[in-house]
Amino acid sequence: MKNREIIISDRAVNSLKRIIAKHQLNGFLGADKAKEAIISRLRRLAVNAEKDSRKAKFGRLDGDYRSVLAWNYRIYYRLEDEEVHVLDIFRDIENEVRL
Fold it and tell me: CATH number for the 5-91 domain, one of 3.40.50.1970, 3.30.2310.20, 3.40.50.300, 1.10.10.60?
């Protein structure tokens, strides 16, 4: 299977910018760690989008909606044959790692 193309929604880009800005208030090291963890996870979605993911519960929406964890954040996306559409990125309180 060839790599899927990653398409990141404007909403997900804005979420990533907010995450980085929030961590920059506490120091650049935390911002870099968060950014690198999320971007690294996004890159891995192109290779194997199902690995370590879980089905997202979006009610009546048709399609293969999934989520993966990247540091303290959950990335929500929709799988298609040749593409991964990244929808949004949220803080995951349930799996939060304290530094």
Answer: 3.30.2310.20
The pTM score is 0.85
Question: pLDDT, tens digit, for every residue of 41-93?
Answer: 999 999 999 888 988 877 777 889 999 999 889 999 999 989 999 999 998 87
Query: Which distant-in-sequence residues (6+ apart) come within 8 Å of 83 by Cβ?
Result: 4, 5, 6, 7
Sheet containing 64-70: order of strands: 5-8, 83-91, 73-79, 64-70, 54-55
Q: Which residue has the tokens 């968060």?
A: 34
For residues 42 and 98, give the distance between their C-alpha atoms in angstroms, rounded to a whole number.
22
